[in-house]
UniProtKB/TrEMBL annotation, chains A, B:
Binding site for 5-phospho-alpha-D-ribose 1-diphosphate: A128, N129, G130, Q131, A132
EC number(s) given by UniProt: 2.4.2.22
Role summary: Converts the preformed base xanthine, a product of nucleic acid breakdown, to xanthosine 5'-monophosphate (XMP), so it can be reused for RNA or DNA synthesis.
Source taxon at top rank: Bacteria
The protein's assembly and partners: Homodimer.
Binding site for xanthine: L20, N27, K156
Family from the record: Belongs to the purine/pyrimidine phosphoribosyltransferase family. Xpt subfamily.
Class of the enzyme per the UniProt entry, highest EC level: transferase
Protein name in UniProt: Xanthine phosphoribosyltransferase
Name of encoding gene: xpt
An example Gene Ontology molecular-function term: xanthine phosphoribosyltransferase activity
Upper classification of the organism: Bacteria, Bacillati, Bacillota, Bacilli, Bacillales
Location in the cell: Cytoplasm
InterPro entries documented for this protein: PRTase-like, PRTase_dom, Pur/Pyrimidine_PRTase, Xanthine_PRibTrfase
Source organism (scientific name): Gracilibacillus salinarum
Length: 196, 196
């Protein structure tokens, strides 16, 4: 997605060989117009798949997921990292290992929002090792729903997540795929054809 | 806002005299079309105020704030409850006391996103005791920005927050104002005139 790549080049910062900081428009400050275009792009790529729900992870997944939900006209559910006081019964939980923080955390969704007739699009802001996306897919499958695919705003294609998810049979659509962040330089994977 | 009141009556649950559960469309599952209408309503109410930025709090504030930001064409910044590994320098922090959880938590925003020319609309999902809104206003004012007003999706008008914020001189616009939740019944404040 050209608009997104342009934004990443203009405002993203390669903090290290593995960390891309995009707090200017995605992770802390949010650019609503860009999110709207991202939502439209996800909707276009998964059009005709019969998506009935979108599942994402708080907090940075919410804006792109809600914009996609607006275009596809389906509800969005965000998995919580922390248990809520008023959301306790019937939680479906999975574990996410964070390589960055070196810790395992539970994420959960109230089971009542998922049923076996649903066909779910998973959306997240980043794909690196694939642990968050796998945990979201795990939750969806625990409720006998089917996963229509995984939509990612920014994939760090030099890490294993994309390969891992594809090997497990998931269709992954990443709107920007980073080839490398070495020498504080952001390079994209040559995207002549869309990733199917 | 009639559409919102209707949704609250249809899908909200009065869990106790003080707790309203709206996880069906706002706090866990999100209704993107309703969020879009909420965004338009906030934009209409604060039109002409010269808003340059919206500040909200993760996670449930993000969807309504981003929709308002889309209509007003301004960036949205969400305050974080937990410090990020890649967002460390120049944080502006304030404290929120939660009466429900009986604990005090820091919330923070990277100072670089706020400057003294900004005129900020604060948006949050709920207004109860006003502690979260006050902490957001405190952060905004620490950076010498001005607060244009506070937009709330659901105000529990039987609690002190609305009064407290008005006394401090803030313009508060609540899209739905709950009068009472007693006997598992949701009653709204009679809203013949809009709250100015």
């Amino acid at each position: 997605m050209e608009l997104l790549q342009k934004k990443i080049l203009e405002e993203g910062i390669a903090l290290s060989d593995t960390v891309l900081k995009v707090d200017n428009f995605l992770n802390h400050q949010i650019d609503p117009k860009l999110m709207n275009e991202i939502g439209k792009e996800f909707a276009a790529r998964f059009k005709g798949e019969g998506i009935t729900k979108i599942v994402t992870l708080e907090s940075s997944g919410i804006a792109p997921a809600v914009m996609a939900g607006l275009v596809l006209n389906v509800p969005v559910i965000f998995a919580r990292k922390k248990k809520s006081l008023t959301l306790t019964e019937g939680l479906i939980t999975s574990q996410v290992y964070s390589y960055t923080k070196q810790e395992t955390n539970d994420i959960s969704i109230a089971g009542k929002f998922l049923n076996d007739k649903d066909h779910v699009l998973i959306i997240d802001d980043f794909l690196a090792n694939g642990q968050a996306a796998l945990a979201l897919a795990d939750i969806v499958q625990k409720t006998n729903e089917s996963v229509a695919g995984i939509g990612i705003v920014i994939e760090k294609a030099f890490q294993d997540g994309g390969k891992l998810l594809s090997e497990k049979g998931y269709r992954v659509e990443s709107l920007a795929r980073i080839q490398s962040l070495t020498n504080q330089t952001i390079e994209f994977v040559n995207q002549k054809t869309s990733v199917k």
